[in-house]
Write a structure and sequence with these properties.
alpha/beta, TIM Barrel, five-stranded mixed beta sheet, 12 strands, globular
Length: 304
């Protein structure tokens, strides 16, 4: 079974946890390191012969269009990570709509290809911002990977499906949703999709939980990482809270070696390749037939 490997292409100073310390209009003052860090990940993927999906932030794409083209040139899928990495539920719907359409168009202009996938900043499509799914459909995205079916202080949607499914938002609108990976552990649903969890948990535990998650839903899991997570020499953010420092800086030196081990322990491909297998009962080329039609879930049942 091939799982979905994803990279959220953003820089260290754009992380939502550091928003109280670095305002959006101050981003230009910080040295960009996203290019060199993304190249390090690209080189590793080339070495191991895997393709991945890169959710690129529009702000980065505007300043580094050559990086987007390099990702595409190396055979990876380009997807959208929004424009300014603002939490969706903190934005007005009209602002989110404008940024979403603009970032999608920007990436399509750079690559000359349709951009089908979207991921919200910090998985911030929650019960309070389900309206965002309709915007994604209107913009022409065919799949989303923003919903994390766990409890968290910044994101999460407990009660959402764990498997790849059709997300229904109105009687007329739906989109394929690939939720972030979680696993049941000691009576709790634990996030295990990557990022800080990948760095903080012992590797053996991550590997075990990823296997458990995939077996639980009988589908591939989805894994994510940020380029700054393989960069232990990044500048430190002054004034950040102890919790934010712990989440952001823990085990940065160990991340790249762990990633090398992960892609030897599991097989990976793009999100598009995985979701194509589950959109219908027809098997994708080289894959086993899908056992049943993709589940549908009406998100209006979770809205507040």
């Amino acid at each position: 079974m091939k799982h979905a490997m994803t990279v959220d292409v953003e820089d260290y100073f754009q992380v939502a946890a550091f928003a109280p310390n670095i305002k959006y209009d101050e981003w230009e003052k910080w040295p960009m390191r996203v290019e060199q860090n993304t190249h390090a990940i690209l080189d590793l993927f080339d070495k191991q012969g895997i393709q991945a999906t890169f959710f690129v932030l529009g702000w980065v794409a505007e300043r580094k269009p050559e990086l987007v083209r390099e990702i595409q040139k190396r055979g990876h899928e380009i997807a959208c990570h929004g424009m300014t990495h603002q939490l969706v539920y903190s934005q007005k719907p009209e602002v989110f709509r404008e940024e979403t359409f603009r970032s999608k168009a920007l990436l399509e202009d750079i690559t000359g290809q349709a951009v089908n996938g979207y991921r919200a900043a910090s998985y911030s499509i929650t019960k309070q911002s389900l309206w965002a799914l309709e915007t994604l459909i209107d913009a022409g995205f065919t799949y989303d990977s923003s919903i994390f079916p766990v409890h968290h202080d910044r994101y999460g949607m407990p009660g959402a499906p764990l498997n790849i499914h059709t997300a229904i938002t109105t009687a007329e609108k739906s989109i394929t949703e690939f939720p972030l990976t979680s696993a049941q552990f000691m009576g709790r649903r634990l996030p295990v999709a990557g990022g800080g969890y990948f760095r903080i948990y012992p590797y053996w535990f991550t590997r075990s939980m990823l296997k458990r998650a995939s077996e639980e839903i009988d589908q591939p899991f989805i894994f994510y990482l940020h380029p700054w997570e393989v960069d232990p020499n990044q500048p430190r953010i002054p004034g950040a809270s102890a919790l934010s420092r712990f989440r952001h800086y823990t085990n940065l030196k160990r991340c790249m070696p762990r990633l090398e081990t992960l892609i030897k322990d599991f097989e990976f491909t793009t999100v598009q390749a995985v979701t194509d297998t589950y959109i219908s009962n027809a098997p994708a080329s080289g894959d086993a037939p899908v056992k049943s039609a993709m589940q549908q879930f009406d998100y209006r049942s979770l809205s507040t």
